[in-house]
Amino acid sequence: MDVELISNANDDLARLADDALLSVFPERSIEKVLLVIPPDADERLFNLDTAKRGRYYNYPGYGAGVIAAHLRAIGIEVSIFNLNNLVLRAAQETEEGSFDFRAAWRTPLSDCIRDFAPDLVGVSCMFTQTHNSTVAVLNELRTIFPTLPITLGGVHVTNCLSSQNTSKTMLSDFGAANFLFTHEAESAFVRFVEVVNQERPCSELIQVHFNTFDDKLSFTNRGAAMEGEELDRLPALDLMNLDELSSHGTIGSFYCLVDPGTRFATVLSNRGCRARCTFCSVRSFNGKGVRTRSVQSVIDELLRLRHDYGVGHVMWLDDDFLYGRKRSIELFNEMVRQDVGITWDCTNGVIAASCTEDVISAAAASGCLGLNLGMESGNPKILREVHKPGTVENFLAAAEVLRKYPQINARVFLMLGFPGETYRMILDTIQVSQQMNLDWYNVTILQPLPGTPIFMSMVEQGLLDSVGFEEIRYNSGAYGKHRKSAELNRDMLARDFKDAFSQVDLDRIPSGEELDDIWAYMNFHLNFRRLFDENRPIKMKQQLAYLRNIADLVSPDNAFAQYFSGVLEHRILGATGPAVISRLEKYLNESPYWQQRFDEFGLRTDQLVSGDFPA
Ligand code: B12
Ligand code: SF4
Fold it and tell me: What pTM does this model have?
């Protein structure tokens, strides 16, 4: 079923749309809207142990919260049903081995619809890896409520619609949704409701695709980018389950540095990004440039989070959080002046050029506990080709500043597997990373996303052909491919990666399998091995918290995390706890893969007793 995109509203299109709306909304009235957030992944990717450990993400539905606030502003009653939180809560409450993933959300969802009786349901889908889960929710709704009007929106939906040639199958899976919305959609959604309620003509519809009609209609016109007061509107915090999210899962990557029991939330202080990296869909989704909220509206949100919801830590959702030096400093100074009393992290990553001394010093004073620096590569040619907004000089300069503020845990995003990237180019990345000497390097292997420039160009070059969304899963993260491999007792770090760079032609492009070895090599050398040389007390404390988090929560089968947390314990406390040693001994006895890695690198459990570690 091919989709004809008819751009620009005209009279014919408006008439067709009017008829279509009447068929879905015979009363032409919307008074109540239910926004639904599907589980992050479907049951095939879900692992009960991981959920019980509280390792899965459990974010507030911020996009839904923003839409809800705009709907409320025109008098619509709104509720948000977060199925991800529901599933995680149910998993934690369930007896071992008896968890029915689907039952955990299906019955409560139908009950919620019967109780709330919405005139319209809006489902949200952000990640490609949430595709299957979203389709399951849509189909369930359609089966139980055949005439319920259903809309769907979010980043993944936008990507599917804007790259129809490559993702037709994905789009056709959304058959249960009557309407699909693209891009930032609060204005489009509000207009849609007003059009259904006959308060506006159909010709004013924007960013909406009529999905289940004989004549497929699309109003592809984009609304004016949200700015000013509208951008400043606070999300409907009361609908976002802020009291319980962090009890059932994680928010951000720096939670191990925050006191246990602290309530987490997220805040979006600006939209878009100044850069246009070819692997990223932010520009095609949010448009060009950055739109900033007023500093006071951000402070108001933080104050409400703290005083009304007991939040103690936030993760910024921004794509380009440090955009505008003056504004960043003003925001941080106001956080101090108005006594916001919330710590924060920037898990999403910041642009290196913005990490100047004045900005980072103000950030540290305002409660910054951690941030990721977007670097991706240390090779100038790759950086130019992927349009990364940074040079090797920028990265080194940012690292120099960040090393002066050791209270900030500074990590770096790296990527591998760009088209044409050779072993030698990857060695540049390793060398620059070593020179930067920051706290942790998160390495991911490129996963081209539909709708991004790199995806299109790889399809054109014949480097990619089909798009199975099974494949569009990331290597890292609780639902990532590497996690799955760990669950099969083959943690990616247990691979034989010692010789990843020896005996190869350095000007060759590594294969997929070889990239996995390089990934493990980089992880070991850039992250674990360098801990032998760490002797700054504050950093040892941060790294110990992080390693304990990996060993206990994220990846209990990672023997390096177990060993190196023992090393740091010994350094900080003078001895390694016996439980750490016996757990590691048991693990190595059971795993020939890990024993082999330990032998190769001269690591032994008795070193944790003697404190005599390899140089
Ligand atoms: C915050 C964020 C995260 C957070 C958490 C996100 C969350 N669950 O809330 C964290 C750090 C966990 C994260 C992780 C990842 N992320 Co991320 N992330 C973002 C980011 C920067 C902001 C999202 C956000 O909250 N925006 C603010 C709100 C207001 O916007 P919104 O949710 O999109 O909602 C708006 C519209 O989408 C729409 N809308 C949404 N729902 C609905 C519903 C209806 C009915 C309607 C009408 C409209 C509508 O209207 C809303 C208001 O304008 C986006 C970039 C971006 N700008 O979108 C990337 C982004 C979503 N992430 C991306 C990626 C790749 C990832 C990772 C895979 C990275 C990795 N390699 O591990 C992981 C995967 C996470 C997982 N599930 O396992 C990609 C997604 C691409 C894709 N198609 O999958 C994005 C687009 C960035 C990019 N590089 O291109 N991410
Ligand atoms: S800097 Fe980050 S958010 Fe901005 S375009 Fe590049 S990857 Fe995307």
Answer: 0.94
Residue 366 CB–ligand 1 contact under 6 Å: no
Residue 320 beta carbon below 6 angstroms from any ligand 2 atom: yes
Same domain flag for 117 and 213: yes
Asked whether residue 282 falls in the same domain as residue 141, the answer is no
Look at residues 208, 182, 183 and name the one whose alpha carbon lies nearest to residue 195: 208
Q: Is the CB of 351 under 6 A from ligand 2?
A: yes
Please give the backbone phi and psi of residue 504, each rounded to the nearest 5 degrees, phi first.
Answer: -125, 155
Q: Where are the beta strands (DSSP E) in 192-288?
A: 208-210, 217-219, 263-267, 270-273
Q: CB-based burial of residue 398 (10 Å sphere; 0-12 exposed, 13-18 middle, 19+ buried)?
A: buried
* Cα angle, residue 481 at apex, residues 51 and 91 outer, rounded to 5°: 10
226 occurs within a structural domain: no
Distance from C-alpha of 487 to C-alpha of 194, rounded to nearest angstrom:
49
- Considering only CA atoms, which residue is closest to atom 69 of ligand 1? 474
Is residue 489's pLDDT more than 70? no
- The pLDDT tens digits of the residues spanning 211-249 come to 988 767 888 888 878 889 999 999 999 999 999 999 999
In CATH, what number is assigned to the domain containing residue 157? 3.40.50.280
- Sign of torsion over alpha carbons 413, 414, 417, 419: positive
Inside any domain, residue 410: yes
CA of 413 to the centre of ligand 2 (A): 11
Is residue 186 within 6 Å of ligand 1 at its C-beta?
yes
Q: Which of 282, 346, 348, 447 to mutate to test the pocket of ligand 2 (most atoms within 8 A of CB)?
A: 282
Quote the domain boundaries for residue 416: 251-446
Domain identity same for 281 and 211 = no
For 526-549, letters b (16+ CB in 10 Å) and e give bbbebbeebeeeebbebbbbbbbb
CATH code of the domain in which 391 resides: 3.80.30.20
In a domain, 548, yes or no: yes
Which residues make beta-bridge pairs with 234?
none
**In sequence order, what are the residues at sequence separation of 6 or more whose Cβ sits closer than 8 angstroms to the Cβ of residue 331?**
269, 295, 298, 299, 366
Domain end residue (candidates: 446, 468, 485): 446
Residues 378-405 have pLDDT tens digits of: 999 999 999 999 999 999 999 999 999 9
Q: Does 151 lie in the same domain as 285?
A: no
